[in-house]
TrEMBL record:
Homodimer. It comes from Carassius auratus (Goldfish). Transmembrane segments: none annotated. This is Glutamate decarboxylase 2. Belongs to the group II decarboxylase family. One of its GO terms (biological process) is gamma-aminobutyric acid biosynthetic process. GO terms for molecular function: glutamate decarboxylase activity; pyridoxal phosphate binding. The gene is GAD65. The keyword Cell membrane applies. GO terms for cellular component: cytoplasmic vesicle; cytosol; Golgi membrane; presynaptic membrane. Catalyzes the production of GABA. It is an enzyme of class 4 (lyase). It comes from the Eukaryota.
Length: 583
């Protein structure tokens, strides 16, 4: 399905004699070249024209000495032409560390940077698509993605770079609302580039001195914000919230039965964990990975807003004890994935203390509200938890991935996970060995995820993150107020959402007035998937949907993109109605 608004930017500049349609890429590029400075418009054109035609390079300008040169692209008068490099004759072996590879490397990387900069500018342009959707078999056929025995030229490599971004989802686009992780922060992006340039491992101070210190400083700050005295405790950055949650379960088991580390699960009684029926699937997945088993995860009832019911938690803990099982872990959720609900942490903490059970808070989605003085009350009681998962790559818009596990007891992670490999963690190094953090991680190779968060925190300050988070919550309240009484909309649950999750049904005219409730629900179940598919085919916006329990498919709008505005929320409502009016 073709888009009707993608090339609209060039419409006002197109001639009326029919010589050039305003709906052509050429017209759009001309308008873009005028709109953007510094040659960005031409770079956008290069990005959009992906294919074999790109191999035909533009004819370079001849200098007086017979060499070829082209403009450097800077937005001011200068005398800095750069040599036109023919990448079709170059291979990766011509780049550093090749002898005399400096200039070729700089030219190649500058081309890659130009591609990325063009993509970044386009991503924030509302007149462009969020997605250029193709079905998998179509996308496989449009480009040659296969790997070959022989090397390809750097020209082919640059074409692959452009193609990859052309078909990527523009997660920075102000109208991309599909996931909990959206947006693109420029300082965070710069930090990610620098991190990849440093290309080191987080296991020892020896090979990552600055990054290890920054992780230490940042984790301490996060523990202070949770409310643990003087920021004491422990923590680590892991590959996503699911792994952070599994770390918490691992620590809880070790705390109660340390012998399992050496002797395995046969040395422990039947352990059971507890979590809300609305909790993230990673709790059960962690239990499966640790050999505890998914049947040993007991799901606790949630109320109509998606919050865990404390009385049901205590009832199920008592029942488990009566059966001879050993409750060892309770995972409360601060910001559920679908409803955005915050479990009553204070009441849960009371129950965990009473029954001597490890309390974990999965704050992957909602933990960042601790940065807001206006909204942090929703996590009252988190300071009583034994551990917490907090994903800055969600509400804080830090580039993926950036997930932290915070632990109240210092030293527990080390004793639980250490293997003391003598080829990495020598005990006679000349510095404080507590900064060799790798042995408390399950991984050996660990990516540097800290620098982008630390650098963004330096750039924004805590108050900058606070303003960013509160803006997203204001946008969600605006959406809720706009549709709660609007014809054709029905909220999934009553009352203002606690987080930026706004869950609703859109009832098209053909479904809205049906009297047969069974038929109405049957047809309504199909509405959200069809509208979502049309969104993707037009490329105008993206919003998630899902069923929940006995509820048929509904839209789950989440807002974490700092680029989104009130106008984007208005657009979303109008687009849903436009795409669903014939259903």
């Amino acid at each position: 399905m073709a888009s009707h608004g993608f090339w609209f930017l060039g419409a006002e500049n197109a001639s009326g004699d029919g010589s050039q349609s305003p709906n052509t890429p050429r017209a759009w590029c001309q308008a873009a070249a005028q709109k953007f400075s510094g040659g960005i418009g031409s770079k956008l054109c290069a990005l959009l024209n992906v294919g074999e035609a790109e191999k035909a390079a533009q004819a370079p300008v001849k200098a007086e000495d017979g060499s070829t040169a082209e403009s450097c692209g800077c937005n001011k008068p200068c005398n800095c032409p750069k040599a036109a490099v023919c990448f079709s004759d170059l291979y990766s072996t011509d780049l550093l560390p090749a002898l005399d590879g400096d200039a070729k490397t700089m030219n190649f990387l500058q081309e890659v940077v130009d591609i990325m900069l063009a993509y970044i500018v386009e991503s924030f342009d509302r007149s462009t698509k969020v997605i250029d959707f193709h079905y998998p078999n179509e996308l496989l056929q449009r480009n040659n993605w296969e790997l070959s025995d022989e090397p390809e030229t750097l020209d082919d490599i640059l074409i692959s770079c452009r193609a990859t971004l052309k078909y990527a989802i523009k997660t920075a686009h102000p109208r991309y609302f599909n996931q909990l992780s959206t947006g693109l922060d420029m300082v965070g992006l710069a930090a990610d580039w620098l991190t990849s340039t440093a290309n080191t491992n987080m296991f020892t101070y020896e090979v990552a001195p600055v990054f290890v210190l920054l992780e230490y400083v940042t984790l301490k700050k996060m523990r202070e914000i949770i409310g643990w005295q003087d920021g004491r405790g422990d923590g680590i950055f892991s590959p996503g919230g699911a792994i952070s949650n599994m770390y918490a379960m691992l620590l809880a088991r070790y705390k109660m039965f340390p012998e399992v580390k050496e002797k395995g699960m046969s040395s422990a009684p039947r352990l059971v964990a507890f979590t809300s029926e609305h909790s993230h699937f990673s709790i059960k997945k962690g239990a499966a990975a640790l050999g505890i088993g998914t049947e040993s995860v007991i799901c606790i009832k949630a109320d109509e807003r998606g919050k865990m019911i404390p009385s049901d938690l205590e009832r199920r803990i008592i029942e488990a004890k009566q059966k001879g099982y050993v409750p060892f872990f309770v995972s409360a959720t601060a910001g559920t994935t679908v409803y955005g609900a915050f479990d009553p942490l204070m009441a849960i903490a009371d129950i965990c203390k009473k029954h001597d059970v490890w309390m974990h808070v999965d704050g992957a989605w909602g933990g960042s509200l601790l940065m807001s003085r206006k909204h942090r009350w929703k996590l009252n009681g988190v300071e009583r938890a034994n551990s917490m998962t907090w994903n800055p790559h969600k509400m804080m818009a830090v580039p993926l991935q950036c997930s932290a596990l915070l632990v109240r007891e210092e030293g527990l992670m080390q004793s639980c996970n250490q293997m003391q490999a003598c080829y990495l963690f020598q005990q006679d190094k000349q510095y404080d060995l507590s900064y060799d953090t790798g042995d408390k991680a399950l991984q050996c190779g660990r990516h540097v995820d800290i620098f982008k968060l630390w650098l963004m925190w330096r750039a924004k300050g805590t108050i900058g993150f606070e303003a960013q988070i509160e803006k997203c919550l204001e946008l969600s309240e605006y959406l809720y107020n706009k549709i709660k009484d609007r014809e054709g909309y029905e909220m999934v649950f009553d009352g203002k959402p606690q987080h930026t999750n706004v869950c609703f049904w859109y009832l098209p005219p053909g479904v809205r007035y049906l009297e047969d409730k069974v038929e109405k629900m049957k047809r309504l179940h199909k509405v959200a998937p069809v509208i979502k598919a049309r969104m993707m085919e037009y490329g105008t916006t993206m919003v998630s949907y899902q069923p929940q329990g006995d509820k048929v498919n509904f839209f789950r709008m989440v807002i974490s993109n700092p680029a989104a505005t009130f106008e984007d929320i208005d657009f979303l409502i109008e687009e849903i109605e436009r795409l669903g009016q014939d259903l």
